[in-house]
C-alpha cells in the first residue's frame, strides 16, 4: 500500500466513495446491488484504515489493518461471484452468512496478531502468521477470479446476449483474469521470500487501476438510475411532457390517482404507464361535464383538448352536468386502437393543453 502514489490513491478512493454513496441511494434494490455496495464499503474502509494508521506513524499496523478490514470486501466479492454463477437463491443467504463469518474470524485473527505485534510481542518469530494470512487471501482471490471467468464465459456463450450484456460480461471476464493473474504474481513474490502484502509499485498501481475500472463498471447502473430519475431517457421525457396535463386532470378528479408506497422509486416506464391510466380514468369521469353545443366539432387534437378544458372548468366551478344528446361530438377522448396510439394522442393533447386551458379560464383565474 505504501508504494501507491498518494494522488492516485486519493482519486480512486474518492471516485469509489462517490459511486458507493450514489448506489446506496439509487441502486440498492436487488441482492446483487446490496452485495456490490457492501463490498465497496469494505474496500474503501480498508484503504482509509491504512491511510489513517500510516498517517499516525504506524504503516506496518496500517498494512495489517488493511488486510483485516479487506477480508469483508473479499467475502462480498466471493458472494457476488457465487450469485452470478447461479447459486441456489434458497440457500444463498445461509452460504453468505458463512462467508461473512469466515471473513470476520479471519479479520479478528489478523487484528489480534497485529495488536500483539504493535505491543511488542514478536509473534512472527514463532510463526510467520502474516505471510500465511496473505497466502490465504491470494488463494481465495485467485479461485474467485476463476469462478467469475467461468460464469462470464457461460453467459457469453448463451444465445443472443445484447451488446450491453456482452460488454459487461467481457469486462467482468477481464477483471476475473486480472484477479487470477495478480494473485498468482503476488503468491510468487510471497513464496520467493518477498515481504507479505507488499507487491511493489507496479502491483499496487495495477490494483488501484483495476479498482478504478471495476468501479467505473459498477457505476453504469448508477448513471442509468440518475438519467431515469432526472427523466432524461425517452420514457422520462414523455412523462415530463404529459405532466402538466396529468396534474390538471388528477387535480380535477383526485379519486383516480393510484396511490403506491414506492411511487417515488418507480422507473420511468412504470411511471408513464400509471400516468396514462390515470389520465384515461380522469377523462372517463370528466366526459359527463363536457358541454353539448350545437356547433359541430372537428375531431382534431385541438378540439379534443378544448373539450377537456371545458369539462375541467365546468367541474371546477360546480356547474350542473349538461344534458346529454348522445352525439359523438360530446366525446373528449381521442379514439385509439392500442396503447401506442393512445400514448401518441395523449402526447399530442399535452402539446395543445396549455392553449386550451388558457382559452377557457375565467377572468378571475387569469
Automatic annotation (TrEMBL):
<feature type="domain" description="DUF6545">
    <location>
        <begin position="234"/>
        <end position="354"/>
    </location>
</feature>
<feature type="transmembrane region" description="Helical">
    <location>
        <begin position="208"/>
        <end position="228"/>
    </location>
</feature>
<protein>
    <recommendedName>
        <fullName>DUF6545 domain-containing protein</fullName>
    </recommendedName>
</protein>
<feature type="transmembrane region" description="Helical">
    <location>
        <begin position="6"/>
        <end position="27"/>
    </location>
</feature>
<keyword id="KW-1133">Transmembrane helix</keyword>
<feature type="transmembrane region" description="Helical">
    <location>
        <begin position="169"/>
        <end position="188"/>
    </location>
</feature>
<dbReference type="Pfam" id="PF20182">
    <property type="entry name" value="DUF6545"/>
</dbReference>
<feature type="transmembrane region" description="Helical">
    <location>
        <begin position="99"/>
        <end position="120"/>
    </location>
</feature>
<dbReference type="InterPro" id="IPR046675">
    <property type="entry name" value="DUF6545"/>
</dbReference>
<feature type="region of interest" description="Disordered">
    <location>
        <begin position="315"/>
        <end position="336"/>
    </location>
</feature>
<keyword id="KW-0812">Transmembrane</keyword>
<feature type="transmembrane region" description="Helical">
    <location>
        <begin position="132"/>
        <end position="149"/>
    </location>
</feature>
<dbReference type="InterPro" id="IPR050039">
    <property type="entry name" value="MAB_1171c-like"/>
</dbReference>
<keyword id="KW-0472">Membrane</keyword>
<feature type="transmembrane region" description="Helical">
    <location>
        <begin position="65"/>
        <end position="87"/>
    </location>
</feature>
<feature type="transmembrane region" description="Helical">
    <location>
        <begin position="39"/>
        <end position="59"/>
    </location>
</feature>
